[in-house]
Amino acid sequence: MLIKLAKSCGFCFGVKRAIRLAENNPDSIVIGELIHNSREIDRLNRNFGVRSADNLDKLKKGDRAIIRTHGIEKDAKAKLLTIADDIIDATCPYVTKPQKIAEAMSDEGYQTIIFGDGSHPEVKGVLSYADENAAVVADASELDRVTIRDRAALISQTTKSIAAFGEVAAALIAKTSETRVFNTICNATYDNQEATRKLAKEADVMIVIGGKNSSNTKQLHSIALQYCADSYLIEDGDELRREWFANKRLCGVSAGASTPDWIIEEATKAIEAF
Amino acid sequence: MLIKLAKSCGFCFGVKRAIRLAENNPDSIVIGELIHNSREIDRLNRNFGVRSADNLDKLKKGDRAIIRTHGIEKDAKAKLLTIADDIIDATCPYVTKPQKIAEAMSDEGYQTIIFGDGSHPEVKGVLSYADENAAVVADASELDRVTIRDRAALISQTTKSIAAFGEVAAALIAKTSETRVFNTICNATYDNQEATRKLAKEADVMIVIGGKNSSNTKQLHSIALQYCADSYLIEDGDELRREWFANKRLCGVSAGASTPDWIIEEATKAIEAF
Known about the structure:
Two copies of one chain form a homodimer. Chain A has 274 residues and is an alpha/beta fold. The first copy, chain A, has helices spanning 13-23, 38-48, 74-83, 93-107, 121-128, 162-173, 187-202, 215-227, 261-273, and strands at 2-5, 29-31, 51-53, 64-67, 86-89, 111-115, 135-137, 151-156, 178-182, 205-209, 231-234, 250-255.
């Protein structure tokens, strides 16, 4: 069986930057999970003493805090500034952008609509920059339960697929006089999705590696499933099963933006071993 | 056979307004066709002496000119002001709006993209208000032949379907950082389209009455065809054929925004006569 890695996959610019910031700031405390990959978080803890705190109350004066790649809510950031002595902002610049757009559009009187998962930290963060008229929708049909105003600004969670974003935009346009659509889907997400799509079309089995709470990894898995019925999402090589590869000719491998190279290599070796 | 008229069809606000202006200004000259209905134009000529001139050179000092419902190009309007003594602007306010948007968006540095038929007078008029970066596309695939800039403003010809507009918007969003989408489809068009769609779903045969050069009438015909294979576009009752109605239970009738009531009544009587 041949194993082929997607042309674009794994660590994105924002994740690389966050990990570099964490490595350069040992013994600091991340609010929440720095990235959605528990094994990489363990490595940063083991090798650099970087810990995670699930809320701000765990911080005390003098601590050095890191803001996670997904960003945090506006109020939390303001509060953090009053607690920590030193704050390292590892918010991905692709996430800072929709935060700023949400704030500016609210100021200009547009109703901010965010296409994304309302329970995801990135979306919660972006939403906190908009005014009280803002809403989060997971798909176009959810627009029906929101009171839509005459002028809207539409933003996407950075890791969503452009096709699904287009569907939400098309539905919103019909309900407004003006909709300002900001394409805030990040390039790495787009590239990884296109590379996964291409590979899934030719593969007999697809392995997508990444955190199961990682939005972009889940998107990759969902795209892979559209073209290759035998597509599996795993966090690491231990989850692989021999029967997945029986009588398969080509195994495609892709990985989310928060999956480090060493996990991809480990999993690829495990596949080879079958 | 039962005959049922669409809940919303025929003359829209802009057409009614234009005809009132023409009737109140006898012996004036319209640049082009006031509305896309040759029989109504004949009536205005016969009863009110309102003539059409196919270009500005036919006008002389002292003439009273009427600007058609679809508007005219910016340069032509400026030239008209230097020739005619009296100008009656019958441009539909729903068309003036996209003209103003095209001008404002060009001023703000957005590339204006117009979804519509580039040969239609309304679209030519709107395009003339935008800068040289503007483009007209008939569908989403035509975006591929345009150099799209980072920030775009999308406008629709007033008579297009909202679903098709959404498709163009979705494709454009993928090519830009920001797209300001202005829903310039007029309410009457939307209402007529929805009423035609509803009627076509239950009808065995559909008759759509209106000018064959009328964009909104062609749209109604195309919507009717989606739900009722036996859908016909006619300009008046003379075009009806007996065989269309053989063994039909329900005949739906709809009419474009430039079709006067008297033509709808005439055609309905002709259908009844079969």
